Amino acid sequence: MSVFHAFRSADAQRESGDAPERGRARRIAGRAATVLACLFVLVALDAPDRLSRLSAGQLVRIPVEALVVTALVLVLPGRARRWVAAPAGALLGVLVIFKGLDMGFDAVLVRPFNPVFDVSFLRPGFEFVDTSVGRTAAIGAAVLIVLLMVALPVLMALAVLRLTRLAVRHRTGTARSVAVLGTVWVASAALGVQAVPGVPLASGGTAGLAYDHARQVRTSLKDRGVFAKQAAVDAFRNTPPSRMLTGLRGKDVILAFVESYGRSAVEHPEYAPQVDAVLDAGTRQLKAAGFGARSGYLTSSTAGGGSWLAHSTLLSGLWIDNQQRYRTLTSSSRFTLTRAFGEAGWRTLTVQPAITRAWPEASFYGYDKVYDDRNLGYKGPRFSYATMPDQYTLNTLQRDELAASGRKPVMAEIALVSSHAPWASIPSPVPWNAVGDGSVFDGMGKGENAAWPSSGKIRGEYRKSIEYTLNTLVSYMLTYGTKNTVLVFLGDHQPAPSIAGQNASRDVPVTVVARDPAVLDRISGWGWQDGLRPASNSPVWPMSTFRDRFLAAFGSTPSGTPAAAASHR
């Protein structure tokens, strides 16, 4: 027992000696946690919702939200104080998530996140990361995002509660600080004082963000009714086939969307010298072969991504800028440009090499045939996001459809995806008679998990991809184009701001190429530039107006006109 008591006595002495050390460690840890909580809340409040605004100067601003909540908790009793602080912190955590989403959507799609429409972008986003950098990275990113979305509101609520307890313990000092900072905030807001150039000292951005998203939700919920009224107007819905597209009878019409081919490609100083040279050389080559061309601009309904929104906008004649409108459209009986061709006697088809699974929306467009990754017969390598080179896509159209004898004229809508981000792998052209099943491209691609080009090279790789597709289109027309071939090619949207530049327009070039001069004569009143390159002052139309302008130019009569009424009788 004496030995036992001796050990107990020694332990007690060590514990009493360690107690001050543990107390000091707890105090240090507590102060560190308080500082971290303060920084956590400050960064959350002052962080911008655009990457372009991200700077150290943002973190020296005075957030009005912090002053209001602090003043409120100082005057509330204990239990009510907690019921204010914890929800306020959780709400701030949710708003931080919205800021992150806004940053991502602005960087890619040049607009803020829409909580009503944009949940549907999660799947395409996952697939894009999967095909760009691999399944493991895509799953890891998805798991990390889910964890952050759960953790941020919880951690922010705990941080605000901790700061609330600190404020109440030092009530007098906190009240004085709030009064002083509130006065400074009001004066700074009134006088426009800046923390650093371009960054106001008085901050209210988080409250403004909450208001903007609340208003956005209200507007988005009303959009279905707005869209229904717009969709009810259709000048060509009842036009009989005999009065449809009479100016293109006997012509094969190829409508090709060039991925990420925006106005920046032909005007941005980093791309224009080389891309314009390709367009000008193509104009000369086509002219020598008897082809003419006219070019202008359309304003796309999307930017940075969401190609299907642009496709549906052009084909339907309606402005499709969100997923709700797209779903409503594709479940309707709207008269599309492809249906106009089909009813007027053309065989209609689409070639979509990036579609790798069932595409139920295809039935809405009225195609006679859908070609996609599963039935195009490609045996070559993948080029990052692009499942196959544009040359193979065009060659398959020619081989399987246009080279057939005794056929009807063809109207083909094609997606050319070699210029799709991440521009990590660009094919090289081969002789058209050597394309075959695509195995000729072996050794050129980097596979479906190709990495993004380095930041110093990505713009150059984007430019090269556009040059590749434009050269391929010109070469296709020189090789296979006839007097009965009409090519319409355009961009679907501008690339992301990191490529197009901040504040770039949503304009995309559009060009009509034909050997028959009568085709181009029909659009002579459009004011478009001769050649493949639109002029800087070329007309700019909303993409949604193209359907009706095109139908009217090529002999279609709106259903309400006397000519259409007579044809019904």
Give the key terms.
569 residues; alpha/beta; Alkaline Phosphatase, subunit A; nine-stranded mixed beta sheet; two-stranded parallel ribbon; elongated; Sulfatase; transmembrane helix
Describe this structure in words.
The chain is α/β, with parallel strands linked by helices. It folds into two domains: 22-218, no CATH class; 248-568, Alkaline Phosphatase, subunit A. The chain contains 19 helices and 13 strands. The protein is elongated and about 95 Å long.
Number of helices: 19
Mean pLDDT: 88
Q: Biggest sheet: strands, sense, closure? A: 9 strands, mixed
Low-pLDDT stretches: 562-569
What is the total number of structural domains?
Answer: 2
Query: What is the CATH homology-level superfamily of the largest domain?
Result: Alkaline Phosphatase, subunit A
CATH topology of the largest domain, which one?
Answer: Alkaline Phosphatase, subunit A
| Portion in strands | 5-15%
Radius of gyration over C-alpha positions, nearest whole angstrom? 31 Å
CATH top level class name of the largest domain: Alpha Beta
State the shape. elongated
Helix content: 40-55%
Transmembrane segments: 28-47, 59-76, 83-101, 137-161, 173-193
Region (Disordered): 1-23
Protein name: Sulfatase
Biased composition (Basic and acidic residues): 11-23
